[in-house]
Amino acid sequence: MSRVRAAGGAARRWLRVVSSPPWRRAPLLVRRSPALAVGVAVAASVLGLAGASRPLFSASAGRASLHQDLEEGCPFEVGLRVERPVPVAGGGDPLAPGGAALDEAVGPIEGIAPAVVSVFGGNATIAPAGGEAGATATVQL
């Protein structure tokens, strides 16, 4: 009779283990199988490495895109662009103080052409000399 009870107890224990959720059994299995622990650690390392490589890939792709833009792009549209309104009339160079301060702050960058200064004035209406009446165009000076 005791053998039957022992067999019934073992069956119940086995049934409890089999029917319990895997996350409850997992720590026990890892302790019994070092190979499983090593496999889980290696898989976690590979997953962590893959997740950590994304910013490096993004930075590399961004750098390549910027390099291509600098090599093939229009020099007047690539790089730092600073705009500010200044009075053009009145003599003197209104851009000199700001331009010198900007040149000092940024400094020369290897592989980049020197700064280009463009001055845009206000809008003006122009008409062709001796042209038909009403033939005008608005331009920016």
Strand content: 5-15%
What is the subunit arrangement here?
single chain
What is the β-strand count?
2
What is the number of helices? Answer: 4
* Rg estimate, integer Å: 38 Å
Pattern of helices and strands: HHHHEE
Largest sheet: 2 strands, antiparallel
**Average of per-residue pLDDT values:** 76
- Determine the fraction of residues in helical runs and give it as a percent range: 55-70%
Structural summary, described in words:
With 141 residues, the protein is mainly alpha-helical. The protein has helices at residues 2-19, 22-32, 34-72, 96-106, and strands at residues 123-126, 137-140. The chain has a two-stranded antiparallel ribbon.
Helix-strand blueprint:
Layout: H1 2-19, H2 22-32, H3 34-72, H4 96-106, E1 123-126, E2 137-140
Antiparallel strand pairs: 1-2
Primary descriptors:
single chain, 141 residues, mainly alpha, two-stranded antiparallel sheet, 2 strands
How would you summarize this macromolecular structure in one to three sentences?
The chain is mainly alpha-helical and 141 residues long. Helix content is 56%, strand content 6%.
